[in-house]
Amino acid sequence: MTRENHITTKAPKAPDYLAWHVTQKGDKSYWNKVGAAWEHKDGKGYTLQLETCPINGRIVLRLPFEDAPELQGRA
């Protein structure tokens, strides 16, 4: 009996949310993408993966959208 190794390549699942670091300077907000979040299979939580960890400002999770324009100046 022979066994074949099957390599299955799944495309990575797109994130459910993108993580943005938002800082406020005067009346302007500056948004920089810092990571993403994926919903758990059981629907009871999320995994947040940060590429960088900001020490000030806030982190906002937003639905991803294609061809995202720079979000500078948005609240």
What sort of overall outline do the alpha carbons produce when their principal axes are compared? Answer: elongated
Class per helix and strand makeup: mainly beta
Helix count from the secondary structure assignment: 0
How much helix is in the residues? Answer: under 10%
User: How would you write the strand order of the largest sheet?
Assistant: 3-2-1-4
Helix and strand run: EEEE
Strand content: 35-45%
Please, what is the average pLDDT? 85
Query: Could you tell me how far the N terminus lies from the C terminus, measured between alpha carbons in angstroms?
Result: 64 Å
Q: Give the low-pLDDT segments.
A: none
Secondary structure: number of strands = 4
Biggest sheet features: 4 strands, antiparallel
Write up this protein.
- This protein is mainly beta and 75 residues long.
- The protein has a domain of 46 residues.
- It is 0% helix and 41% strand.
- Strands 3-2-1-4 form a four-stranded antiparallel beta sheet, with no helix packed on it.
- A hairpin with a 2-residue loop joins strand 1 and strand 2.
Give the structure's gist in a few sentences.
By secondary structure, the protein is mostly beta strands. It contains no helices and 4 strands.
